[in-house]
UniProtKB/TrEMBL annotation:
Keywords: Cytoplasm, Elongation factor, Protein biosynthesis. GO terms for cellular component: cytosol; ribonucleoprotein complex. It comes from the Eukaryota. InterPro entries: G_TR_CS, P-loop_NTPase, Small_GTP-bd, T_Tr_GTP-bd_dom. The lineage of its organism: Eukaryota, Metazoa, Ecdysozoa, Arthropoda, Hexapoda. This is Elongation factor-2. GO terms for molecular function: GTP binding; GTPase activity; ribosome binding; translation elongation factor activity. Residues 10-213 form the Tr-type G domain. It comes from Orchesella imitari.
Length: 213
């Protein structure tokens, strides 16, 4: 299936996953790998599939950027997001080339290398910790490389089970994170520049919510 998709360039997505350290990049990537059928769902989050080095497994941090190719088929309800007729009519399948990059500040060069070979960046933010120092750094790196960021609020289970936030408090927390991310984007991106406006907005499908586990 992956080999067949390689000839359909419009159905290929090259993306990198960037975030502050310990915000759940590798665990979220495990869930995506599991969804693609590469590892068992029960092992997602424990395997740390993209942490291939022994020192990464031992220290539970990503040191080197690691790429993986996955085949996904869209559900019928998601086809509304596909606007190009060549993509909608011929197949619901997509080839995702994903790079899991480090979150630690000492390995920022690995993040830059990952961004330079991808078309988009998934910015993972722990919805309890919020926007952190390295979140701003990786966003700045993405914009400098003209890579459009998409926000994913991770660890929703912590907000619901540990903090037990009420609905209004939860909404305010999410709104604050989106605003903080957009402030960083506005600081480093010029809307009249080559990328145009890249602010994230849940109503435009550029903000996701979930949990890597």
């Amino acid at each position: 299936e992956i080999r067949g998709m390689m000839d359909r360039k419009r159905n290929i997505r090259n993306m990198s996953v960037i975030a502050h350290v310990d915000h759940g990049k590798s665990t979220l990537t495990d869930s995506l790998v599991s969804k693609a059928g590469i590892i068992a769902g029960a092992k997602a989050g424990e395997t740390r599939f993209t942490d291939t080095r022994a020192d990464e497994q031992e220290r539970c941090i990503t040191i080197k950027s690691t790429a993986i190719s996955m085949y996904f088929e869209l559900e019928d309800r998601d086809l509304v997001f596909i606007t190009h007729p060549d993509q909608r009519d011929n197949t619901k399948g997509f080839l995702i080339n994903l790079i899991d990059s480090p979150g630690h500040v000492d390995f920022s060069s690995e993040v830059t290398a990952a961004l330079r070979v991808t078309d988009g960046a998934l910015v993972v933010v722990d919805c309890v910790s919020g926007v952190c120092v390295q979140t701003e750094t990786v966003l700045r790196q993405a914009i400098a490389e003209r890579i459009k960021p998409i926000l994913f609020m991770n660890k929703m289970d912590r907000a619901l089970l540990e903090l037990q936030l009420e609905q209004e408090d939860l909404f305010q927390t999410f709104q604050r994170i989106v605003e903080n991310v957009n402030v960083i984007i506005a600081t480093y991106n010029d809307d009249s520049g080559p990328m145009g406006e890249v602010r994230v907005d849940p109503s435009k499908g550029s903000v996701g919510f979930g949990s890597g586990l």
